Amino acid sequence: MRTEDNRGLRVSGVTKQYPGTIAVQDVDLDIYPGEVVALLGENGAGKSTLSSIIAGVTQPTTGTMTWNGEPYSPATPGDAIAAGIGLIHQEMRLLPDLTVAENVMVGRWPMRSGFLDARSMREKAKVQLQRLGFKGGMDATVRNLSVAGQQQVEIAKALMLNASLLILDEPTAALGQSETEALFDCVRSLQAEGVSFIYVSHRLAEIAQIATRIVVLRDGRKITEHASGEVSPKQLVEEMVGRPVERLFPEVPPPTDKVVLQVQDLHDKAGNFTDVSFSVREGEIFGIAGIVGAGRTELVRAIAGAQHRHGGTVQLDGRTLKADDPMAAIKAGIVLIPEDRKQQGLVVSDTIENNIALPNMTKIGSGGWIAPAKVRKLARSVAAGIGMKGNVSLPVASLSGGNQQKVVIGKWLERNPRLVILDEPTRGIDVGARASIYEVIAELARNGNAVVVVSSDLEEVLGLAHRVMVLARGQNQGILDADEASPTRVMELATS
User: Boundaries of each ABC transporter domain copy (predicted)?
Assistant: First the structure.
């Protein structure tokens, strides 16, 4: 370590204690100009707490920090930003009814003669967003953007800070391969200017590409530090979880020949997907890959009846399903685990048990009455089945991202579906929770369900799927068997 260098950030013996728990304990961390330090660990390891302390969101119980050789103890995020340190949160903090440009420039809107200079605002926002590969318009309302588009706006907003240290918390969670590469190009460009980064991610395949050092946390403590980013994912996983891990992706037997889902010439008026045809067999995990904007989410939502389709057919076990009718799809045996679990999959302010009960009222109600004892019994049974520990009477908001996703999956699996569609099933979820969700997906296939997995994480799609369909500009560019589906081949099709 370059202990003689006073530039950058030095964290010394930082501890954060809450009633009944220690979130971070005696952590030392140095960040030098032009570095990208990957901060790894499971949910609850202390990554977010440490990041929040550095960014002025939380104050440490004990310990000290220095910034460029001077004492540094931000009382608010504003103090940190003024010092040149910014945090890009995993949970986006955008104003949904403002435009893209207004969000990127919020708090720094250019003025002329006392009025907003809209043209200058659009131009400045466009410069930052183009660095990230953003394809939308500056006047688009943020509410109408995809999750990936919103993530790009969030990152561009932070880039406007001209910070010397940026903390990126799961910045690629909603991004595809091309958008991730654009972000990395931007990070490398800023590195060359002396900007440093703390990079928090569960996508271990990215670490070797972008990190100059790796710091691993477990149970609030710093476990180890690696002098480069070139460390095997298997070793990092074992350091994070504290035990040997044989394999991340479970083995799944080959599917049968029986076709469960048959999609024929599906298309919509907006051109999100055009003449898409494919089938999924009993016991098959069918992956859908493609860059952001390829139409993956729109396609699976249309299959589940949650989004309009203009033409084509969807058949489940030979029975043609009515278009644009999510209830008919659910009754037929199709369930969709959406990509945005907080906005579309859960009522986060309500309890775990009530969330589990919502799609299962016929099991726990009679004559218009719901029995609380039955609600709790059902919730405990579902929680045990998906490996979720804790009190089911607590709010969903109190759970980690991994356990929230388990609640979404578990509540729908209680309906014994025939087809399960999972859109970005492990977005923002740590490696330990990922492994358990992968096992749930594999068990569905072993039990004869048909499973469709949509993911921007190529490693995930290739590790799980028997076959992979690649979408580009809403069209099926090809379906690859597992033995021919490589990252290179998938990206060739996705960009063709």
Answer: 9-244, 254-493
Please state the domain extents for the chain. Answer: 9-241, 259-494
Q: Using 50, 70 and 90 to split pLDDT, how confident is the model at 1?
A: very low
In this prediction, residue 186 carries a pLDDT of 83
Read off φ and ψ for residue 97, nearest 5 degrees.
Answer: -95, 5
The superfamily in CATH containing domain 259-494 is: P-loop containing nucleotide triphosphate hydrolases (3.40.50.300)
- The three state secondary structure string of the chain is CCCCCCCCEEEEEEEEEECCEEEEEEEEEEECCCCEEEEECCCCCCHHHHHHHHCCCCCCCEEEEEECCEECCCCCHHHHHHHCEEEECCCCCCCCCCEHHHHHCCCCCCEECCEECHHHHHHHHHHHHHHCCCCCCCCCEHHHCCHHHHHHHHHHHHHCCCCCEEEEECCCCCCCHHHHHHHHHHHHHHHHCCCEEEEECCCHHHHHHHCCEEEEEECCEEEEEECCCCCCHHHHHHHHHCCCCCCCCCCCCCCCCCEEEEEEEEECCCCCCCCEEEEEECCCEEEEECCCCCCHHHHHHHHCCCCCCCEEEEEECCEECCCCCHHHHHHHCEEEECCCHHHHHCCCCCEHHHHHHHHHHHHHEECCEECHHHHHHHHHHHHHHCCCCCCCCCEHHHCCHHHHHHHHHHHHHCCCCCEEEEECCCCCCCHHHHHHHHHHHHHHHHCCCEEEEECCCHHHHHHHCCEEEEEECCEEEEEEECCCCCHHHHHHHHCC
Share of the chain above pLDDT 70, in %: 97
- Do 9-241 and 259-494 have matching folds? yes
d(C-alpha 303, C-alpha 325), whole Å: 10
452 backbone dihedrals φ, ψ, rounded to 5° = -115, 125
Give the tens place of pLDDT for each residue, 90-118.
666 789 899 999 999 988 888 988 899 99
Superfamily of domain 9-241: P-loop containing nucleotide triphosphate hydrolases (3.40.50.300)
User: Of 238, 163, 240, whose CA–CA distance to 201 is shortest?
Assistant: 240
Among the listed residues 347, 352, 336, the one whose alpha carbon sits nearest the alpha carbon of residue 425: 336
CA–CA separation, 303 and 421 (whole Å): 9
